[in-house]
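[Solved] Which block belongs to which protein?

Original post:
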Amino acid sequence: METIMEKTALVLGAIGGVGGETARALVRHGWKVRGLVRSVRPGLDAGIEWIEGDAMDAAAVSGAARGVAAILHAVNPPGYRDWARLVPAMLANSIAAARANDARLVLPGTIYNYDPAATPVAQADSPQDPATRKGRIRVEMERSIHASGVRALILRTGDFYGPRPGNSWLSQGMVKPGRVRSILYPGGKGIGHAWAYLPDVAETFALLLDREPVLPHFARFHFGGHWDADGTRFTRSIREVLGRKLPVRGMPWWALPLIAPFNPTMREMIEMRPYWRHPLRLDNRELVAFLGEEPHTPLAQSLATSFAALGITA
């Protein structure tokens, strides 16, 4: 029984991009995985034990977490609404559940902890002085976890993309499902950008959790992913995978404030503009030293797999 309990994980956000991919990766690594969802419905992964409940409900999180060894907190408020109020409350429930079960709390981190104008290369212990509201919330999340004293694992990554990405710059802005006629790129030439292929991120989480006995009590790593050094590598690879020299258009940033009052997603996008105007690369040397290597799917292969799953064609 002890062996089984040591390999059980609870995933909050298991139908989202990073939560879903990591849940499936943990199953492949021999973990028993529970997924907390608001409503259990047909079509959910059969390899996961689904439990109905809300991340805002402390009792639901506590009940779902009973006996687990790890809790992946990969849940966000729907539609980016009311982040400042909802995010700390949801995290507090996960922290309490981790403490009650002596479980490791796992958090997918982001580049938003850093000011890209001041930090072109970020190490895990680089100063965190974000200029955005979302970045400040992210920093406070990590501080709350550290102050709680629970065992924790934070893996910071660049922008997600993949076959089941949830919210993604690639699939919701740059290219759309169906026949692609052009590529909409938010950044400029000469500005580097960090990308994280979700299956690789998920595999990294699974490999790290498999090494629980040697993980630091409060472990923080950076995932290098795919670094586009000049802002053209990613779009060039999209063209190559789709087999067409598609035109690349710039993001009409000037128009977003006109839409933002009626669209919370647009408000979030505007706040992220500094990360497209300044390069911010994540230094993954500590991760590579710990694991031996970082899981890494070639860029063209990762894009081809993503496009096939999303119905994006030439």
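(Second protein starts here: sequence line, then its structure tokens.)
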Amino acid sequence: MPGTTHPIRPVDVAGVRELARAGRLAGSASAAPPRDLARLRGAVYAVTWPLVFARLTKPLELRRRHPDCLRGLEWMRPDCLDGFHDDVEAVVEHALRRATGPIENLEGWLATRLNPATVDAHRRRRGEIGALQRPRLPAWLGDALGGDPWLGELAVRILLWVGVPTTAGGELWPLAGWAAHRAEVTGEPAGRDTRDTLDREVRKVLAAMRTRPNWYAEHVERPLGHKRAPVAPMPADSSAELAALELVRPHEVDDARLSGLAEQALRAIEARLARGQDPAVAVTAVVRVLFGAADPAVLDRLPRNGSTRDDWLSAALADDARLDRIVTTALTVLAR
């Protein structure tokens, strides 16, 4: 269980129940050394998580229409699982601070603390990233929006949304969800252009918020910076590999490859010349070996998409006159 590296034993859970009945759960937690506190927290976690899953998580996932998340923890989506653990941790910490009196039925007491504990933790997390804990429409912002009821409602929804850790899929704002609420407030039925209209309205609200730069930076930009980046979906054909990211242009790869081969060629030619081999024979042999064979570095190229320099070298090696010029150039470089 989170908070401890030790397996939680039935005796640990029984000990927590006994501490609760004696009214000593919070006191024991505050005085416990780290190792004992970790085991105590794990035991409370073991009692708490089924309650949170049954009474908070399942109803929430039902509203989200996440049937996979309703099946159990091992099937939950990563973001939903993170939220579940946040809620459990909130209730555990609440219990370790607030369970100061005798509690005969620990599960029953925890059930009454689920909402206040998670709401307090939610507000605390929002406050830590700069998001308003209880967003309300400031009077100055309402005036800047001309007193428009819907734009005022949209501003509050923006202030709520910036404190939520996730994004709306691959988008920043949950325009699809806001469209239905817009229709309720304005009486205008949602249509094909509703999304574009909402996008313009969001930009209008944000522009009004920016008239107070410090306020905007603290309560909008700062919490937005804490949102988790969305993960790009995999292709429909999961067996297909994603295209490799090209960090270097193809011609730069060719230049580096040919430069490397040239260095190898010069070293090989020098070695042959040192052994007394005829210069023309040495250069010709090395050039043919290094530049005439197929290079595995270009096997990933599409047909007819190779290096034009490879084509030039192949033609040069087949032409005696051009090959003579290559030999002369190589010997000149080596000062021979």
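Accepted answer:
You had them paired correctly. Confirming on the second one: Residues 1-5, 296-307 have pLDDT under 50 and may be disordered.
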